[in-house]
Design a protein that fits this description.
The chain has nine helices and nine strands. By secondary structure, it is α+β, with helices and mostly antiparallel strands. Helix 8 links the parallel strand 7 and strand 8. 30% of the residues are buried.
Length: 277
């Protein structure tokens, strides 16, 4: 069975391929007094959020606002200019004109606060951007790159979070792991019926041996890795009743021979076993 078919089968087990999900992501950018030009820092914010929010959007809403300084007609026009500036910038990133479904200019009519200070007025000079998505979760590009089936290795049909890996001899994930954990959180939120077991693994040991955790000073490193992910997901709002965790030591390695650092890093991992969908 090819990779795509294995992946699709794995996602169907999780229920991803059958359910569509509605999601929104709101970003706010701010403007200088009497200006409609995007600030450099807000361009950075839009660039950072674009791949996650913009590319998979089915519609976009823009609403422009001003502070209390000036007359209504002036502020209404300025708010439209700010909306147009944001739309133009997003279009430069590849967003089609047809995705901009709702455009509003509220001028100074809907302030966030009483405009009593310079800081408060700055907060009111803004454009709010709402990215709306309504897509089959299985089509989210993240799923195609982050999950892989391990059935061909062990027959267990677990799912590996490919980018969630750990420091050697420690239960803390590498910094590159956290975006993937946030995506996992999102998936679990979209599918509240899923129950999972988080399974931890180590490298560089015999299959029936676990590792020594330098942080807890205990010989159960694989358990501590699974426990860390379990506790982290709880902090992100996933109910603990939906999850359990176990450690499997160095069993079922993805790379049995571990010929280089990359293979050893890949064996320092967690897998997901679906208990209920």
């Amino acid at each position: 069975m090819g990779f795509k078919k294995v992946l699709t089968a794995s996602l169907c087990v999780l229920g991803f391929a059958r359910v569509q999900a509605q999601s929104t992501d709101t970003i706010t950018v701010h403007f200088d007094l009497n200006q409609s030009v995007l600030r450099p820092e807000d361009k950075v914010t839009l660039d950072h959020r674009f791949d996650r929010s913009g590319r998979r959007s089915t519609s976009i809403e823009l609403a422009g606002y001003c502070d209390s300084v000036g007359e209504n007609r002036y502020n209404d026009s300025l708010a439209w200019q700010r909306v147009a500036e944001v739309k133009k910038y997003l279009q430069s990133k590849g967003i089609a004109d047809t995705l901009f479904k709702v455009l509003h200019s509220y001028g100074k009519h809907r302030p966030l606060n009483d405009n009593g200070t310079d800081e408060k007025r700055n907060l009111n000079r803004r454009v709010e951007i709402v990215f709306n998505s309504f897509i089959p979760p299985a089509s989210i590009p993240y799923l195609e790159t982050a999950f892989r089936d391990t059935g061909h290795l062990s027959g267990r049909k677990n799912i590996v979070l490919k980018k969630v890996t750990f420091y050697g001899d420690r239960h803390f994930p590498l910094p590159t792991s956290y975006p993937e954990l946030l995506e996992l959180r999102n998936i679990l939120r979209e599918h509240p019926g899923i129950r999972i077991e988080i399974q931890g693994y180590v490298c560089c040991n015999a299959p029936d041996k676990d590792g020594y955790d330098q942080d807890t000073h205990t010989p159960d490193l694989s358990v501590q890795r699974a426990k860390y992910i379990y506790q982290y997901l709880i902090k992100l709002g996933i109910d603990s009743s939906r999850m359990t965790y176990r450690g499997f030591g160095a069993a079922y390695p993805i790379f049995p021979k571990e010929e280089n650092d990359e293979q050893r890093t890949n064996n320092r991992r967690v897998e997901l076993k679906v208990l209920k969908q």
